[in-house]
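Good morning,

Attaching, inline, the backbone tokens for the sequence recovery test we're adding to the shared suite. The designed sequence is right after.
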């Protein structure tokens, strides 16, 4: 039995550190926005290579508050991709703005810069490239276009903690970047959590105000805000886990490289690692070529019979979901639509035994035969 992922193994490997941090928070008697949160914010910003970090209660809220802090709202358009967590779209709507979708590239599965440029209108205020599955989007081209049209760049780094683009960590390129610490992410809390990072002191201050009712001083709202705080327990646990992130990402890369080496790549294609950066393999996503008769559903069932877990991120592009059919016509974002039909995520996490990678690869070789 090879599960799609297993978070219990990670806890076992760092149990003493996690339990120590938990007890430290319980004994402190301080649970919301305190020394652990402040320390984590500084440590995480330093890790990404930016000046400011602000802990919030989810990746969705990180995006929502970043958009609001930029002064974007009703009547403004924000461009992003249809192959993302619905959270990206929900966050744009929470800020009162209008999501606009552009297509992705077939190789990186990330935002296509030409499609982004074509989606710009006089109402466009920002672009959200999503670094999907752990790999950076084509930042040079996207940021170049954004600067030309004076659009803000908001990086959605929810799947790419530690990934690099031309040697520098993602999250340090845009005007602002947003991270999720949902438990299954490369850096995951034991509950919900998120962070906004930026080099812009004014923007950082606005996010800080927004996350707690617009308070600069307690009970004095300077602007209208929300409750979106990172708690001390999650911050303390994230501080422990941040120290292991590079080693975990290296373990993910080792397992991904072994899959890529072992898969026969006939009708089921390995993911493409772009030359411009280091992929951190939040997910290892293969693509079944429908035109050659490789059905994703059949491969998933074939692996399930062999007790190998798989998943599909994401089975339905945003604009083909009931709530969002008004955003784009079916057929208008063909690369995203084809990917949604053909992709399958294989088991991959830092503690996955290499022998399990070999077992999965053997099963796919049998499928290909
Ligand atoms: C997980 C995720 C989010 C949302 O994060 P939450 O912490 O679950 O709110 C946003 N964008 C992408 C691409 C994600 O994968």
């Amino acid at each position: 039995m090879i599960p799609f992922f297993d978070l219990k193994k990670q806890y076992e490997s760092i149990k003493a550190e996690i339990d120590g941090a938990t007890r430290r928070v319980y004994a402190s008697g301080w649970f919301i926005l305190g020394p652990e949160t402040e320390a984590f914010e500084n440590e995480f910003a330093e890790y990404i290579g930016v000046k400011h970090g602000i802990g919030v209660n989810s990746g969705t809220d990180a995006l929502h508050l970043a958009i609001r802090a930029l002064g974007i709202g009703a009547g403004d358009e924000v461009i992003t991709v249809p192959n993302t967590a619905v959270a990206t779209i929900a966050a744009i709507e929470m800020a009162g703005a209008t999501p606009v979708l552009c297509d992705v590239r077939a190789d990186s599965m990330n935002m296509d810069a030409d499609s982004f440029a074509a989606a710009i209108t006089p109402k466009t205020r920002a672009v959200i490239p999503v670094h999907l599955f752990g790999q950076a989007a084509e930042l040079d081209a996207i940021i170049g276009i954004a600067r030309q049209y004076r659009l803000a760049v908001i990086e959605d780094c929810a799947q790419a903690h530690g990934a690099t683009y031309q040697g520098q960590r993602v999250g340090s390129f845009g005007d602002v970047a947003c991270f999720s610490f949902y438990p299954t992410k490369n850096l995951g809390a034991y509950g919900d959590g998120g962070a906004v990072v930026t080099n812009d002191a004014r923007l950082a201050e606005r996010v800080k105000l927004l996350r707690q009712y617009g308070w600069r001083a307690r009970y004095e709202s300077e602007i209208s805000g929300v409750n979106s705080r990172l708690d001390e327990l999650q911050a303390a646990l994230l501080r422990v886990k941040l120290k292991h992130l590079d080693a975990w990402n290296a373990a993910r890369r080792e397992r991904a490289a072994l899959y890529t080496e072992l898969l026969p790549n006939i009708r089921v294609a390995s993911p493409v690692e772009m030359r411009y950066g280091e992929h951190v393999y939040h997910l290892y996503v293969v693509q079944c070529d429908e035109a050659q008769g490789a059905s994703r559903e059949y491969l998933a069932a074939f692996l399930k019979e062999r007790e190998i877990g798989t998943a599909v991120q994401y089975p339905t592009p945003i604009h083909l979901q009931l709530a969002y059919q008004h955003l784009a016509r079916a057929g208008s974002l063909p690369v995203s639509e084809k990917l949604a039909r053909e992709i399958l995520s294989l088991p991959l996490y830092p503690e996955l035994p290499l022998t399990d990678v070999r077992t999965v690869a053997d099963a796919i070789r049998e499928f290909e035969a």
